[in-house]
Amino acid sequence: MAKKNKMKPRELREAQKKARQLKAAEINNNAAPAIAAMPAAEVIAPAAEKKKSSVKAAGMKSILVSKNKMYITSFGKGNSAVLEYEVDKVDDNDYNKTQLSSKDNSNIELGDVNEVNITFSSKHGFGSGVEINTSNPTHRSGESSPVRWDMLGLKSELEKRFFGKTFDDNIHIQLIYNILDIEKILAVYVTNIVYALNNMLGVKGSESHDDFIGYLSTNNIYDVFIDPDNSSLSDDKKANVRKSLSKFNALLKTKRLGYFGLEEPKTKDTRASEAYKKRVYHMLAIVGQIRQCVFHDKSGAKRFDLYSFINNIDPEYRETLDYLVDERFDSINKDFIEGNKVNISLLIDMMKGYEADDIIRLYYDFIVLKSQKNLGFSIKKLREKMLDEYGFRFKDKQYDSVRSKMYKLMDFLLFCNYYRNDVVAGEALVRKLRFSMTDDEKEGIYADEAEKLWGKFRNDFENIADHMNGDVIKELGKADMDFDEKILDSEKKNASDLLYFSKMIYMLTYFLDGKEINDLLTTLISKFDNIKEFLKIMKSSAVDVECELTAGYKLFNDSQRITNELFIVKNIASMRKPAASAKLTMFRDALTILGIDDKITDDRISEILKLKEKGKGIHGLRNFITNNVIESSRFVYLIKYANAQKIREVAKNEKVVMFVLGGIPDTQIERYYKSCVEFPDMNSSLEAKRSELARMIKNISFDDFKNVKQQAKGRENVAKERAKAVIGLYLTVMYLLVKNLVNVNARYVIAIHCLERDFGLYKEIIPELASKNLKNDYRILSQTLCELCDKSPNLFLKKNERLRKCVEVDINNADSSMTRKYRNCIAHLTVVRELKEYIGDIRTVDSYFSIYHYVMQRCITKRENDTKQEDKIKYEDDLLKNHGYTKDFVKALNSPFGYNIPRFKNLSIEQLFDRNEYLTEK
Questions:
Q1: In whole angstroms, what is the distance from residue 594 CA to residue 838 CA?
Q2: Are the beta carbons of 187 and 753 closer than 8 angstroms?
C-alpha cells in the first residue's frame, strides 16, 4: 500500500486558505449572474452546509417600514444597526433611494427595488459584489401591507399598551415583540423555580403545597408575614399568610434550600438567624410576585407591572437585593488578589509598558467581569489555533501541572490586545466572522487571525512559558502583594451599581443551574440590546418616529444600561455550591437515589457513612458519595425537579431507559459501555450495548457501591472507576429524561402565558369578551373568535374556514373542567411529579412528546378530589386501552390555544413539535 503524503499543519492551512481564495474568486468572477437570478435568500456557500441566511451573512440587519418609507439597516459594531438607506415608494414599481450612511460606515450597496423584491450586495466579506434578493416587507401575496395589520389582529392594541397610541409602521411592533420575548422566557424560568421550591418542600401524597409561593406577596413586609394576626389584613388573608408561614418554616426545616447555596448562619445570635430568614422570605416573595406578573394578565394593576413593581414595594425588599449583590462582590474581591496574586505578579513583571494598577484593573475585567466574552469572538479559540499550528512546544508534558495558569496568561495578553491596544483589529475580526456562512469558513478566519497574532505574540508566549517554574510560582504564592485596595473598591462600585431590575434578575439566578443561568441571561441581553437599537433608530433624525413608552415600560429607556448590567450579572452569577449545613439531607437524597429506602433514619445514614467518626482512611464511602453524587450538577437538578425515590423507580423501566440511551450518540455509548461493564464485549452490536447499560441502570443498588474504596489501587481502583462511570451514566440518563420533559412543559407554559396576555388584549376590542373570565373557561377566547367568523379581527380564523371548523370541533371535544385542570397541570409541572405513577403503563416509548402527553392525559382523567369533573372523560377508554396518548385528546386539551393556528398545530401534532428542544448527551 502506498504511503500517504502527510501535510504539515502549516502547509495544510495554507492549502485551505488558497482554496478559500480560489472559491471566492470563482463566486465573484463567474457566478454573479446565476446567484443574482435566485429567489430571495437562496445564495448558498459552495461545498459546505449553509448555516445562516445569506441576507444576514451579507450584512443586512433589518428593513424597517414607516408609512410609505423603508429604512434599510446593516450590522455595525457588535449588535448595533447602521442606517444605510431610506427608500420612498412613489408608486408600485417606482422607489426613490437615499443613502443615509457615510462612505466609511456603509456595509451594503442597494440595487433594484420593486414591489416584491429588494436587491443588494455586500461591500465587505461574504460574496462582495454578489447581488442578493430579499423580500419587500410591504408586500405579501398581493394583500395589504403586513405593516398595517397582523394575523392575530392585535398590533394596534399592543402599540396602545406599550406606547399609548397606534402607528403605521413595523418598527414599534418589532420593539414590542422583543419585550414580549423577555416576558415569555421569564414565565418559563419563574414557573420552574416555583415548582422546584414547592418540590423541595417534599410534602407527600398531597399537591396542596403547589400554592405555597402563590400566597407569598410583596404586599406584606416580613413582620406581617411572621405575625399576621397583629396586622390589618382581612381574616381570609391572615389565614392564607398563616398557611404560607407554616410551609415556609417547613421548607427551612428540610434544609433543602442548601441546594441553592442558602445557609442559615451557625451562630447563637438570633438576630443573624432572623436576618437570614427575612432575606429568604424576600427572595421567595419576589419570585412569587414575578410569577403573578408573567403568568396572569393583570395590566393596569400597578403592583403587577413586571418592570416597575420592585421600585414601588417596601424598601426592605430592595435592601435584600442590595445585600445579595454586595455580598457577591465582597466575596469576589476578597478572593481576587489572594487567588490571582501569582498571575498578577507575573504579569507586572512581564508587561513592562503597563502600570501595576492598570494591570490589576484589566485583570479584574478579565477574571471577574469577563469582558473578553463581549468582544464578539473567542479568545480561547484564537489561542488554540496559535498553539495547534505554531506553538507545539507549549503542549509538552512538562507544562501539564501549570498548563491552566499558562493558558490563562496567554489569553489575557490576547484580551489586552483587542480590548485596549488594537480595538480596530477586533472589530474587523467580528465583521469577518459575521460574513461567514459555515463553521468551516469561521475556522479559516480564526486560522488567518492566529497567523497574524503568532508573529506579534510569539516572544510574549515564550516569556510566559519561561516563567512557568514551580519554585518561582510557589515563592510568589507565599509573598505578600502590595497594591492599593481602593482599586478593587472602585471596580466593585462601578460593577455593583445596578438598577433594581438587574439585581432582581441576579436574585433569580440563585435558583438556577449553570446552563439555565446562561440561557436566561443570554436571551435577556440579546433582547435588551435589540430594544436599545430600535430606540436609537426611532430617535434618529432620519427616521424620527414617536417612541414615548407608557408608564409600565419606562424601564426600557435604560436598555443600553441594562444590557451592560445583565452582562455583568451573567459573569458574576454561577451555580452555587450546596451549603454545608444541608449535607445530611443531601446524603439522604443521594443514598435514596442509589436505592436505599427513603425511610432510613438519620442515625443509620451517619452510621453507614461514618459521619460522626474521626480518623484517617475511614471516610472513603462518604467521600465517594460526595464526589460522585452530591457534587454532580445532574443530581442537584434531579432533586430540584423530581423525587429521589421516584427517580429510582422510574429507572427500573427498561423501555424508558432504552429510549433515553437511544438519544445518546453511538460514540458516547461505546465509551460508557467500555467504562461501565466489567467484562465488555466490544464486538457486540450497539443495540446489545445499550441493552446491557439499561439493565445495569435498572438493577443499580447502593450495595454495588458500599464497599468502594476512595484511596484504591490496582483492581480496587478499577472497580472504583467502574462504579463512578455507572453512577455518572445513571444520573445522566435520568437527568436527560427529566430535563427534556421540563423543556416540553416549557412550550406549554409559554402558550398559557400568551393566552392570558392575548385574552386581556382581545377584551379591549371584542365586546363579547368584556364580561368573560378566562379562569371560568380557558376555551372562551378561541370559542368567541370562532363564533365571530368574518367579524373576527383574528385573520387565522377569519381567512381559513376549514381550520376554523377543526378548532371548533376540538373546542367541543373539551370542557371547562378538563382545560382548567390541563392549565394547572402545566403550571405545576405535574407530568414530572407524576411520571413514576403512569410511565410504566405506556406501551411504546418513542418520543418525549408521547411520554409527556400520555402522563398528562392520565393526570387529567384522574378524578379523585375533583367534584367539578364529569364522571368519565370522552377519551379515557381509548387512553387506557391503547396505553399511549390519544391525538384527538391532545387537540381538545390544546383548544384554548386554537386562536393562534400555528402555535396550536405545533403544540398538538407530534411531527410538528420542535424536536430541537430535546437534549442529548454530547
A1: 21
A2: yes
